Amino acid sequence: MINKLLVVGTMAYDAIETPFDKVNKILGGSTTYTALAASKFEIDCGVVSVVGDDFEKKNLNLLKNNSINCDGVKIVKNAKTFFWSGKYHLNMNDRTTIETQVNVLANFNPIIPKYYLNAKVAVIGNLDPNIQLESLNQIKNSADFILLDTMNFWIEKNRDVLNEVIGKVNLISVNDEEAKLLTNTNSLLKAASLIQKMGPQYVIIKKGEHGSMLFGEGKIFIIPAYPIFNVVDPTGAGDSFAGGVSGFLCDKKKINFDLIKQAMLYGSVLASFTVESLGIDSLEKVTKNTLNKRLNDFKSITSF
Amino acid sequence: MINKLLVVGTMAYDAIETPFDKVNKILGGSTTYTALAASKFEIDCGVVSVVGDDFEKKNLNLLKNNSINCDGVKIVKNAKTFFWSGKYHLNMNDRTTIETQVNVLANFNPIIPKYYLNAKVAVIGNLDPNIQLESLNQIKNSADFILLDTMNFWIEKNRDVLNEVIGKVNLISVNDEEAKLLTNTNSLLKAASLIQKMGPQYVIIKKGEHGSMLFGEGKIFIIPAYPIFNVVDPTGAGDSFAGGVSGFLCDKKKINFDLIKQAMLYGSVLASFTVESLGIDSLEKVTKNTLNKRLNDFKSITSF
């Protein structure tokens, strides 16, 4: 039996400006990157999201062609897809959001297809904590392992519900700034310890180009990012990382610290492909061969 | 025979302010940290530096008590020791220099004791490139392996001589900002490649709390920093790292990429002790036992 992975989150159009390039409308959203990265594994991946009727059929087909089940994608008539526009600074690590058009996301009422209620692993992407809670309430007694993402905006705007959500998941994956903001501390070690006390057995802190850290079972694991000569567009790197982590874990029997370590290697490598092109282009082209080749490179770069 | 390590650089008094603590005058300087870290290895370490007659005897004795040969430390009468005053920001990674009193360093004319001219490894610390060149000219045909440090100030002020110096060393160890400034690029991979073309066979790029990268022999190695719960004072971390690297390499027969990788583990761990106290206190107390224990922790934290 092939295990099921559920990914709940956004599908979007992005406008992206970097010091070297610019696009006005490309496919984006956390679900898109996460599901595409996860689709590299031998699992059954289904997505739950919402788009407007401006969402192009070819974009939905792109996911379907990668064996991603889109039954949970609601298309709202006379409405527009979520839109995000951002500009990356010269260091390619910091970015400024220029515009966010929430559009259909404002009334997103996630309905998880019955078939995916008992997913082995569920990824609850960055969304209003109320929507995250609605998703969790549908799966909480049936999904095996739940991975959560969030962002600064929700930490500041809807903390109470977010706390409730965090209390219900197995693994939370946030970046360093978010971890500090969540816990009002400047030390990532302290932050991780405080977040674990909020509920999750495992905490991943992402540090962009500087790699990521895993905390759980009283242990710590730290890996650098896979080094990339030409970073073209960092958008979706964190979501691709989550896709690699969840995709790898999804076909494992019992998820533990050591397996999450391995999963992070895959997540890091998939994220490294993502940043090599604008949007999903480079991620979509990843094959089992190119993935394994880079994974071996990564191991040799970080082993002693 | 015990191999010799030569360390040329500054001995100083520092005034340090962090968000949590403040001291007006403590022992500092690159040579102090580098030699103390290197003294943890079974080598014969000699330092070359200059101080004023305000330099307290107990500070010199501290080095001597750690088996560091101070014959090369010149004490200038009626002059004051180099003084640096800095303030760390809340993230403990960024700092602002409040005051630099060059004092005796202005006329530093390094004379390397004959006994250390044929050192196995020489560390040329951050100094005016003219002074670095004077040191190099004394040892260049006799020392086996030369490690160089520099900083933004000299990259901007004395680039021509610095280039000449860089062309004469085996390994250069700089931080990420310095690497970018040296090569006018924003990519660390490109920077490392360009620096290698300037001469050094090996390049280490230090990223503070984010670890370090090694480039050489067509290979790359990346390690995180050893994670510290309570960073008290980051001063001297980079110099302690250099001390660990050079101390480890000093008793090896033929230095190569794989040995420098191992050396970086020691350098990282020694730096992690340094940041746990103001000044050298915590570094000085490191024993073979505590060093090896943390080294094993570090390996388990970064291995998969």
List the helices and strands and how they pair.
The structure is a homodimer of 304-residue chains.
Chain A: E1 4-8, E2 12-17, E3 22-28, H1 30-38, E4 44-52, H2 57-65, E5 68-76, E6 82-88, E7 95-101, E8 121-124, H3 129-139, E9 145-148, H4 152-157, H5 159-166, E10 171-175, H6 176-183, H7 188-197, E11 202-206, E12 212-216, E13 219-223, H8 237-250, H9 257-274, H10 281-284, H11 288-302
Parallel strand pairs in A: 1-4, 1-8, 2-6, 4-5, 8-9, 9-10, 10-11
Antiparallel strand pairs in A: 2-3, 6-7, 11-12, 12-13
Helix pairs in contact in A: 1-8, 3-5, 6-7, 8-9, 9-11
Structure description:
Two copies of one chain form a homodimer. With 304 residues, the first copy, chain A, is α/β, with parallel strands linked by helices. Chain A is 37% helix and 26% strand. The first copy, chain A, has eleven helices and 13 strands. In chain A, the strands form two sheets. Chain A has a nine-stranded mixed sheet, sandwiched between helices. A four-stranded mixed sheet of chain A has the order 3-2-6-7. In chain A, strand 6 (82-88) and strand 7 form a beta hairpin. The radius of gyration of chain A is 18 Å and the shape is globular. The mean pLDDT of chain A is 96.
